[in-house]
TrEMBL record:
Protein name: Eukaryotic translation initiation factor 3 subunit H
Record lineage: Eukaryota, Metazoa, Chordata, Craniata, Vertebrata
Short name of one Pfam family: JAB
Localization (cell): Cytoplasm
Gene that specifies this protein: EIF3H
PANTHER family in the cross-refs: EUKARYOTIC TRANSLATION INITIATION FACTOR 3 -RELATED (PTHR10410)
UniProt feature, compositional bias: Low complexity: 196-207
Subunit-structure text: Component of the eukaryotic translation initiation factor 3 (eIF-3) complex, which is composed of 13 subunits: EIF3A, EIF3B, EIF3C, EIF3D, EIF3E, EIF3F, EIF3G, EIF3H, EIF3I, EIF3J, EIF3K, EIF3L and EIF3M.
Length: 279
């Protein structure tokens, strides 16, 4: 068993080494290109493209922890190309909270560790405000394009967004809810096994105490001491970090659905008001 693990682990390291080398090479090329056009090229984080807000994962957590552990000010940019193609720039920056950084350093993802840290999915990531500044030439170009746009083109803003976005978001939300239910089943099974073992341990200690009392009344020596902790080893608690990540992703999906429906409801009210005004 251990030999097979070593083989898989070494293979994984061999496959990961070229990927890390390519990633570093890509970063150096990008920084060199930025330097050639006289743009600040400090390495302050990384970015990830995602669809429908699906970015809360263990891989992102581990990567951001690695960056933020090396450079405290590191951030991760989350870019949604589908939402951006629909006319709404989706670009957000996140950092790990100090609480989550401390937990990741200690690697204590047990239920007791997370409870002691008093952390929930709301305290995992902190959003960093993004300010986009254009040059004066770009601002002039945008103003000229705005002047040339037809009035009829502006009515396209009232078009309802595609229902595919809502359907896909709801489908992914239901999938994560199913994952959450499986995690709940695992934790409930662990709680039942732990309670059952504690009850067996209590019964054993009571029976042993009664036996020693009877032996003492007969003038016999007590039973030899036994290591009860070895006899009743507690079951291994399931890691709760995955549950927190799933809860955080569910919250992100809910926020996306809320934003999507709010925008469409606003468009419906505006279209109704314009129709009533024209009639």
């Amino acid at each position: 068993m251990s030999k097979g693990y070593r083989v898989r682990s070494s293979r994984r390291h061999r496959e990961a080494a070229p990927a890390r080398k390519r990633r570093v090479q890509y970063q150096m090329e990008m920084m060199r290109s930025l330097r050639h056009v006289n743009i600040d090229h400090l390495h302050v984080g990384w970015y990830q493209s995602t669809y429908y807000g699906s970015f809360v994962s263990r891989a992102l957590l581990d990567s951001q922890f690695s960056y933020q552990h090396a450079i405290e000010e590191s951030v991760v940019l989350i870019y949604d190309p589908i939402k951006t193609a629909q006319g709404s720039l989706s670009l957000k920056a996140y950092r790990l909270t100090p609480k989550l950084m401390e937990i990741c350093k200690e690697k204590d993802f047990s239920p007791e560790g997370l409870k002691k840290a008093n952390i929930g999915f709301e305290q995992m990531f902190e959003e960093v405000p993004i300010v986009i500044k254009n040059s004066h030439l770009i601002n002039v170009l945008m103003w000229e394009l705005e002047e040339k746009s037809m009035v009829a083109d502006k009515h396209e803003l009232l078009n309802l967004s595609s229902s595919n976005h809502l359907e896909k978001s709801l489908q992914m939300l239901m999938d994560r809810v199913d994952d959450m239910s499986q995690e709940i089943v695992k934790y409930n099974t662990y709680s039942r096994n732990l309670s059952k073992q504690q009850q067996q341990k209590h019964q054993y200690l009571q029976r042993r105490q009664q036996d020693n009392a009877q032996r003492q009344s007969r003038g016999e020596p007590p039973l030899p001491e036994e290591d009860v902790s070895k006899m009743f080893k507690p079951p291994q608690p399931p890691p709760r970090m995955d549950t927190l990540l799933i809860a955080g992703q569910i919250n992100t999906y809910c926020q996306n659905v809320k934003e999507f429906t709010s925008q469409n409801l606003g468009k419906l009210f505006m279209a109704e008001a314009l129709q009533g005004h024209s009639s």
